[in-house]
Amino acid sequence: MRSPRRGFMIFDALLALGICGVMLTVIAAGVNSQQKASRRLADYRAATRLAEQTLARIQQGFAPAAITPEDQLTVENVNQTPSPDHFKWVRVTASHNGCSIQLLGLARTEAGGK
After folding, report:
1. How distant, in Å, are the alpha carbons of 35, 45, 62, 70, 91 from that of 42?
2. Per the structure, how many domains does the chain have?
3. pLDDT for 75-113, tens place per residue?
4. Is position 70 within any domain?
5. How far apart are the first and last CA of the chain?
6. Which pTM value belongs to this model?
7. Which residue from 25, 30, 80, 107 has the highest number of Cβ atoms inside 10 Å of its Cβ?
8. 25 located within any domain
């Protein structure tokens, strides 16, 4: 005669394997989401660094530095508010892999370096 418990044991083992599979899927999705967020934050940090470096160079009277192919950089004059003599307001927009950041600051009106 067959034991009636044998079928219950197989069902219990399959149920445990199914639960483990669901848990692994949830963990894998969480790790993937975390990696995407980490890459996006790194792109925003790179865009911020580029905008800050560019604004600092302009404030010192130098031209913006060369950029890499995945970066985009624009510098535009903002003449809406008064500024001190020999300075102007500029908006620096920097993008890195699609993540954009804008900085507003004062820059010298003279062209060229020191």
Report:
1. 11, 5, 27, 13, 22
2. 1
3. 998 877 777 887 889 999 999 998 999 999 988 876 444
4. yes
5. 98
6. 0.71
7. 107
8. yes
